[in-house]
Design a protein that fits this description.
This protein is an alpha+beta fold. It has two domains: 96 residues, Phosphorylase Kinase, domain 1 (2-Layer Sandwich); 216 residues, Transferase(Phosphotransferase) domain 1 (Transferase(Phosphotransferase), domain 1), CATH 1.10.510. Helices cover 44% and strands 14% of the residues. The strands form three sheets. It has a five-stranded antiparallel sheet, covered by helices on one side. A three-stranded antiparallel sheet has the order 6-8-9, covered by helices on one side. Helix 3 crosses helix 9 and helix 10 packs antiparallel against helix 12. The chain starts with 8 loop residues before the first helix and ends with a helix. The mean pLDDT is 94.
Length: 336
């Protein structure tokens, strides 16, 4: 969220004192991320210790904090564990938001700072550890499982109809509607291929592992000592390993675009057999989900300000040369 939510700082301060026993002397909103349901702050207690406060709107699943805590307890150094409340919970409630507190790590994400070769290897090793993590049944049963559902595909089809039938007055919405119409044939092919591949995978028996499901450069945090962390665990799912591996070379970011950079990742991850059908499915489905999410953000409301403009920019860029759309089709038809 790039714009501060309409929530008084005094409510946040009161929550942190009541639930965490902290006396906050400074609170600063951080305009970070593209998720309209998530706002983040840097807060400082009276002992000068800084904390990272995340406010999550909408539905909240406690598994998104329980799993990072488990991984941290198991010794996964790339995880920043949440801080428990005085009552022992890993979250608190403030107004309509869920509040999650953790130590503040000053750093930059993988879009803002160059990821080193050592870190590419480390990311691979960390993902392998995630994919082979031992989960107690009490937690494993609560993690969503991949179902190859048509939810996002159906939404995109509805938004395509809306874009053609509605005259949008708000400028960003009008530009998005024009983009959807200009790219209609490409988007139709994206949705259709995601559907075809998803149907194929539904009929197969694939091994599911614990996946982060959003492991791109924006969710890598690198501090001043070049220590690497993986952040934002809101999309956890039990799915084939390709759910995460599809990001490697997908065109989403510059972390592992070249063959050499991808080889460094797999040096850390280890030898593994990658199913091309599953990999292609996730690359198509990810784009379809992005289209639907940006349409929800921009076409269903006039709110958002700077978030709307950034959302439109990011969606339009996906259709550019060498970006995710081109890579997805190349993954599916490598010999074309």
């Amino acid at each position: 969220m790039l714009e501060k939510p309409e929530l008084p700082d005094e409510q946040l301060i009161a929550c942190l004192q009541h639930d965490y026993g902290l006396r906050i002397i400074q609170i600063d909103f951080l305009p970070l991320g593209n998720d309209l349901n998530t706002a983040v702050y840097r807060v400082v207690a009276d002992d000068a210790r800084p904390y990272f406060l995340k406010l999550r709107g909408g539905n909240f699943d406690e598994i998104t904090v329980a799993i990072p805590q488990l991984l941290s307890d198991q010794g996964m150094a790339q995880v920043i564990a949440p801080i428990a409340t005085c009552a022992g919970r890993l979250w608190a409630r403030v107004d309509t938001f869920t509040a999650i507190l953790s130590p503040f790590v000053a750093g930059q994400n993988g879009f803002e700072v160059a990821v080193t070769d050592r870190q590419r290897i480390e990311i691979g090793a960390a993902l392998k550890r995630l994919h082979t993590a031992a989960l107690p049944s009490s937690l494993g049963q609560r993690i969503p499982r991949e179902a190859y559902a048509p939810y996002w595909r159906d939404l995109v089809r509805k938004f395509q109809e809306r874009a053609e039938e509605t005259a949008f007055v708000e400028p960003v919405a009008a530009q998005l509607a024009a983009l959807l119409q200009a790219k209609r044939a490409v988007i139709d092919n994206l949705v259709l291929r995601a559907e075809q591949l998803g149907n194929l995978l539904q009929a197969r028996s694939l091994e599911n592992v614990l996946c982060h499901a959003d492991i791109h450069a924006g969710n890598l945090l690198i501090d001043g000592d070049d220590t690497l962390y993986i952040v934002d665990w809101d999309t956890l799912i039990l799915a084939p390993k390709e759910r995460d591996l599809m990001f490697v070379g997908s065109g989403i970011d510059h972390v592992w675009r070249s063959a050499r950079e991808q080889a460094l990742f797999y040096q850390g991850y280890g030898s593994t057999e990658i199913d091309p059908t599953t990999l292609a499915y996730y690359r198509f489905e990810r784009i379809v989900e992005d289209i639907a999410a940006y349409c929800e953000q921009i076409l269903l409301t006039d709110q958002g300000g700077q978030d709307r403009e950034e959302g439109l920019r990011q969606l339009a860029s996906q259709f550019g040369p060498g970006n995710v759309v081109e890579v997805a089709f190349a993954s599916d038809y490598p010999h074309r």
